[in-house]
Amino acid sequence: MGSLDLNSLINALVLGLSIASIWLLAAIGLTIIYGVVGVINMAHGEFIMLGAYSSYLLQSYFGLPFLLCIPASFVVVAAIGLVIERGLIRYLYNRPLDTLLATWGVSIVLMQAVRLIFGSDPKYLAVPALFSSNLQIGFINLSVFRIVVMAVTALVVAGTWFLFYRTRFGMQVRAVTQNKEMAASFGINASRVYMLTFALGAGLAGVAGSLFGVLNIVLPTMGTAYVVQAFLVVVTGGGTLLGSVFAGGLTGELQSIFAAVTNDTFARFLLFLLIVVFLWFRPQGLFAPRSVRR
Amino acid sequence: MAGLLEIKDLHKSFDGTPVINGFSLEVTEMTVCCVVGPNGAGKTTTMDLITGRQKPTSGTIHFAEEDITGLGEHEIARRGIGRKFQVPAVFRELSVRQNLEVAYSKQTNALKNMFVFGDAAMKRKLDEIAALANLTERLEVEAGTLSHGETQWLEISMVLMQNPRVLLLDEPVAGLTEGEIMKTARLIKQLKETNTLIVVEHDMGFVREIADVVTVMHMGTLLAQGTIGEIEANDRVREVYLGSEEH
Amino acid sequence: MNLYHNKLAQWAAYGVFFAIIAAVPLFVSDSFLLNQLGTYGVYGLLALSISLCWGFGGILNLGQGIAFGLAAYGMAMTMQMQTQDPESNPIPPFMLNNSLEQLPALWEPFWSTGLGITLALVVPTLFYVIFGNLMFRARVSGPFFAIMSLAMLSALFTIILDMQPYTNGANGITPPQPLTILGTPLDPYGPATYWLVCGLLIALTVGAKLLTQSKFGLLVQAVRGDAERVRFLGYNVAAYETAIYALSGFIAAVAGCCWVILVQYVSPAQLDVSFSVTMVIWAGIGGRLSLLGSMLGAFIIQGGQSYLGDALLSTWLLGLGAFFIIVVRFLPKGLAGLLEMGLGALSSGRRPKQLEPADRANAMAGE
Ligand SMILES: Nc1ncnc2c1ncn2[C@@H]1O[C@H](COP(=O)(O)OP(=O)(O)OP(=O)(O)O)[C@@H](O)[C@H]1O
Ligand SMILES: [Mg+2]
User: Fold this and answer.
1) ipTM of the complex
2) How much is the average pLDDT of C263-286?
3) What is the Cα A16 distance to its own chain's centre?
4) Which has fewest Cβ within 10 Å: A161, A177, A249, C38?
5) Mean pLDDT of chain C
6) Looking at residue B247, what is its pLDDT?
7) Which residues are bridge partners to B62 per DSSP?
8) CA nearest ligand 1 atom 29, residue
9) Are both B174 and B241 inside the same structural domain?
10) In chain B, what is the straight-line distance between the N-terminal and C-terminal CA atoms, in Å?
11) What percent of chain A has pLDDT over 90?
């Protein structure tokens, strides 16, 4: 336990930004799947894991450069998400607890399948030398790769925002989330919107995975580390894009500051307690869509 | 004489959109007060405000001289206000009998109810009310299998099992057949002997049958109040409401 | 009338089940096997607790490891302190390795066996009362409660892992000697311990079964169906939810104590998320609406897993996951629901076919 001087406070804030970007990146796919489709996707961590493995596969067997692995992982995991949505999830809409459980089943299947195929030993993703260097600005020290993660997160958030608020597809999505029946009467196919949104959310988890595979080692169990945190971001944010951005930023910074004063694990515990108390006052989260009426 | 239920200058807005605009109402004990008005007038919202499902933006609600504004749903229900919802809300997975048992809420304490395995007074009341509502034959079936009319009656029976002083019935005859409507009207007249009722209804024939007082709501305010004859003769009511009705 | 819904037939089934599990030590002489079968009693208790909370109360609890783990730690601490001496040797060895020079205050109450066991049961239950009350009063429910319980569990997991000097971190606590009660050591491999666990399982199952038949049990099921409607009948829904959640936590706490008595070991693994989810899978596959079904689900799944062994673990889990998906999708009432349908078909064989709930649900979905 130490007091916080100005330098270490600034350091903590910068680090917090990095943590926030990681959590937000992990949470963004989850947010849109929850916010639009209303599904609590417990397999989200495994989608992240699949993103890491597809990057690994593409890199070590097809020699794809890392930067191309990121969009490629998006495509691969989005395709897997599409199959899962069509084959299972779409039958469980309106049964929120059951979707939660079924996606948990999916997460077990994916994890064990990957373990059977790739084994339990860790895999590594290679990145350009530049990415593995460190950047020193004054007293602030940050690895270049973390800056890459921040950039990708910013890009993903901007892209998602653009898609949802500036395109025809986004308009359809919003119509469906606000009033499914009315949207249907305008000829919008809700089932198709759900399918594409689910695939998109899965694909974004894939992007996160190919980056997290560099931050950490690639393991069949790597997804579980992110999924709880991602959920807290979504719950705190209330399931909207804006909510998740704020919640991710806030929790990331708080984690970093708490960690600077105490330690990493205790900070996490403290943060969780804070979220519980926050939810007690605002169960609908930071920015919740209007509740449904009876 | 002071009313059993007194609503004073009630306001409610959702996200800045006013839905109830200074609505006041006084309901006398042992009468049937019918609330009518066009779709979206705020009738259901008023029920929500009385029963604590929504908190008013301003205004007060008194029940038996006690201020109940802002109390929790269960606290208001315990004071003797029972409610039937516009969209019938019964426990579909439970049997009709179990639905009625749940509604019998003399003992509400969770810990004490762990040691309650059906009591004689409850059983008597259950049989009585089931007979009243023609549900005796259907007691053992799952509530989800009931017809629409039966479901409406089951929910009214549940409200009766609560033994409330005031019954709020939100569209109790919506979707019922002519015969069922007449039976419901008879039931309500019978209940008036011992209870106070507030009935939201669009069916003017039914209202004519049961109402002591009719209150017309429009855009969240009280447009007119009086006997059914006065209301039907009122020009403004004809303009905003009755003219648009098929009845 | 479907035999499945006949109360007498249900009690008869439970009676047979109790008789069989109680008779096990008469036929099993291998003490190692008996000990392992004892741990199945622990799984049974956990499945029972999940069935009560999730099956009857509709509260999906993905963090049952909280009560199980906390109680297990409490019991392990009690057993550890039984082997320490206040005068000559007051500090457990792992603390000395972590260079603690004094027994932490947290550990002091565990000098007393009675107080230690009481704490092991009361602390988790109280925790559930507080956490449940916070959540349910704020009307956090359904999937959100599931997520919060999961997050709470992982928060606890990290904190126990982190408090190395007090909890021995990832290594956990291994009390060197069996629990001694009233001067007699309770041999974890002997029939007495098996019967203790078995007796607790029977007693708590009977209690839970009675509870589901009480007015409280009925209300809890009503809350599962439509919590909001129950409020307007005058019941404080949060109190009911908290009560059923805490009771299920208490049962899990008993399971935690039994676990440590049987295996003389506790580690953060008992609070691992995947173990808590496994409990839900037992109940889901066995049939969450049936206490007995959930317990049998636990026995079948854990039995299958240990029969196949570690070599095939991944394949087994893969199959289990796939089967769980199938159950969620097609058999929401699990294997017990299958039995219900079978007996239903048997009893209505001669009468005109009535619409089964499942058919009705399909018919509604088609609308
Ligand atoms: N929770 C809510 N959020 C936003 N708007 C609401 C909410 N509840 C009600 N409203 C709005 O308030 C207005 C009044 O609704 P209310 O349901 O009270 O009408 P009503 O008189 O019961 O109509 P009906 O005869 O159709 O049942 C409607 O325009 C409705 O859209
Ligand atoms: Mg209405």
Assistant:
1) 0.92
2) 94
3) 17
4) A161
5) 90
6) 44
7) B6, B67
8) B40
9) yes
10) 35
11) 61
Which residues neighbour B244 within 8 Å (Cβ) at sequence distance 6 or greater?
B38
The range of the structural domain enclosing residue B31 comes to 1-80+164-247
Residues B76 and B186 in one domain: yes
Q: How far is Cα B197 from Cα B81, in angstroms, rounded to an integer?
A: 10
Decide if C28 is inside a domain.
yes
Query: What is the reported pLDDT for B118?
Result: 80
Number of Cα atoms under 13 Å in the Cβ half of residue A31: 35
Tokens of A244: 């998740």
Q: Is C311 on the interface with B (CB under 8 A)?
A: no
- Taking residues A250-269, what's their average pLDDT? 90
Domain count, chain A: 1
Q: What span, in angstroms and rounded, lies between the C-alpha atoms of A56 and A76?
A: 12
Give the number of beta-carbon pairs within 8 Å between A and B: 5
Residue C367: predicted pLDDT: 33
The secondary structure element, H or E, covering residue A135 is strand A134-137
Q: A283 in a domain, yes or no?
A: no
Q: Do B15 and A294 lie within an 8 Å CB cutoff?
A: no
Range of the domain at C170: 3-352
User: Is residue B160 predicted with pLDDT exceeding 70?
Assistant: yes
Indicate the pLDDT class of residue A133, thresholds 50, 70 and 90. Answer: confident
Is there a single domain that holds both residue B184 and residue B76?
A: yes
Assess contact for A220 and A118: CB atoms under 8 A: yes
pLDDT, position B32: 94
The answer to whether position C358 is within a domain reads: no
Q: What pLDDT does residue C98 have? A: 85
pLDDT band with cut points at 50, 70 and 90 for residue A56: very high
Angstrom distance (rounded) from CA C279 to CA C44:
9
User: Is the pLDDT confidence value at A118 over 50?
Assistant: yes
Read off the pLDDT band of B127 (50, 70, 90): very high
C-alpha distances out from residue A49 to A22, B154, C294, Å:
14, 51, 31
Same domain, B5 and B119: no
Burial of residue B146, with CB atoms counted within 10 A of its CB: 0-12 exposed, 13-18 middle, 19 or more buried: buried
Residues B67, B109: one domain?
A: no
B115: in domain: yes
User: Domain check: are B168 and B242 in the same one?
Assistant: yes
Structure token pair of residue C223: 């809350």
**Which stretches within C98-167 are classed as H helix?**
113-137, 142-162, 164-167
Which residue minimizes the CA distance to atom 2 of ligand 1?
B14
My answer on whether B247 and B179 are in the same domain is yes
